[in-house]
Design brief:
three-stranded antiparallel sheet; 12 strands; binds pyridoxal-5'-phosphate
Length: 391
């Protein structure tokens, strides 16, 4: 087992997942054993669970600036994306014969593959928005494409691969004008950016706890009151009939606690991480020949650095970094052996050979300046070695 505290290992993949904050774990623990009731039960065990559930819901609602009955707990960020898009698409078709799904080409697979399946099996039409070289959506392009029969618009808030932050508030305002439901995948964004649903002008917003120091396997979906949506699973009446299944109270408590700390400590966390991230980007671009930043230089997640390197195989680079004790990512979820470059980079206009040489380095609350120095010491040597092998 590899520990985060292992001095020979340095974890720089916080966009993939984060460790559970010990304070979050502590808040969760009683609900596994002592207070184990089913929130649907009438007796005091059930009431206990119900109280924990509803106070978690109130806390999340306050942090998302919405009403508690607009918060639905799900099993993960992916499920939230699925419920938002499937649920709203089918409701839009049934209530107003809308058939079009408008998304960006740089969405997470939980959005893209959901839309693709709706197109393939249920005859929805997908329209992909253009993005610029940073993977940014221009709100004007959304405005131009909104139609009477647009069932739903979904645009990622902060990109997991390249860190670019979209102008969700402006896009949301345009969708509101046309009365088209607007979803944003805020799974990555929620760790560091405001998820104020009113300010963002969203109807649907997805989050997942494990991206902000909560447990894996728990997410939430904000659904603005009055948004037409169908459940995608059927069963009990939990979560206002939109998501059946006995509540996972410890994880729900964990999500609420983790989000609370993320918001409360945001400024402190950003203040710790951002200077190291900026230093890292500056040094890489200066000292590694043929290196380029991917994603937006300014409108990007504060913990996120991502690059492409000329003449480098991204997978080989990751493996060599791992041997040196550094855990990074290529940015996409592709496992080694898949030579296909990231669709996100290609959509942003990156040439294919350059896109295969991608590297994502994401920092977290436990990252230290010393770790970054060690990384900066190793990276030029490793890229050089990978280039020698592949030439
Ligand atoms: C991680 C992630 C997801 C999926 O969330 P899970 O909780 O892992 O299912 C969806 N969208 C984005 C942008 C992500 O970063």
């Amino acid at each position: 087992m590899i520990l985060l505290t292992d001095k020979s290992k340095i974890y720089l993949d916080y966009a993939a997942t984060t460790p559970v904050d010990p304070r979050v774990l502590e808040a969760m623990l009683p609900y596994f054993s002592d207070s184990f009731g089913n929130s649907s039960s009438v007796h005091s065990y059930g009431q206990d669970a119900e109280n924990a559930l509803e106070s978690a819901r109130e806390s999340v609602a306050a942090l998302l600036n919405c009403h508690p009955n607009e918060v639905i707990f799900t099993s993960c960020g992916s499920e939230s994306d699925n419920l938002a898009i499937r649920g709203a698409a089918f409701a839009a078709r049934n209530t107003r014969q809308a058939n079009k799904i408008l998304i960006s080409p740089v969405e997470h697979h939980a959005v893209t593959n959901t839309a693709q399946q709706l197109a393939k099996l249920h005859n929805f039409n997908i329209e992909f928005l253009p993005v610029d070289e940073y993977g940014l959506v221009d709100p004007a392009d959304v405005k131009e494409r909104l139609r009477q029969d647009t069932a739903i618009v979904s645009i990622i808030y902060a990109n997991n691969e390249i860190g670019t932050i979209n102008n969700i508030s402006a896009i949301g305002a345009l969708c509101q004008e046309r009365n088209v439901p607007f979803h944003t995948d805020a799974v990555q964004a929620a760790a560091y950016l405001s998820a104020d649903t009113k300010a963002l002008n969203v109807d649907l917003l997805s989050i997942g706890a494990h991206k902000f120091y909560g447990p894996k396997g728990i997410g939430a979906l904000y659904i603005k009151d009055g948004t037409p949506i169908y459940p995608m699973m059927t069963g009990g009446a939990q979560e206002f009939g939109l998501r059946p299944g006995t509540h996972n109270i410890p994880y729900i408590v964990g999500l609420a606690k983790a989000l609370e700390y993320a918001v409360e400590e945001r400024e402190h966390r950003v203040g710790h991480i951002l200077p190291m991230r900026d230093h890292l980007i500056g040094m890489v671009l200066e000292y590694i020949q043929g290196s380029y930043l991917t994603g937006h230089p300014i409108l990007r997640m504060p913990n996120h650095a991502s690059f492409v390197f000329e003449g480098v195989d991204g997978n080989a680079l990751l493996l060599m970094l791992d041997v040196e004790g550094f855990a990074c990512s290529s940015g996409s979820a592709c496992k080694t052996g898949d030579p296909e470059p990231s669709g996100v980079l290609l959509a942003a206009g990156m040439p294919k050979d350059l896109a295969t040489g991608s590297l994502r380095v994401t920092l977290g609350t436990k990252t230290t300046a010393e770790q970054i120095e060690r990384f900066l010491d190793i990276l030029p040597k490793v890229t050089k070695r990978v280039r020698q092998y592949s030439s």
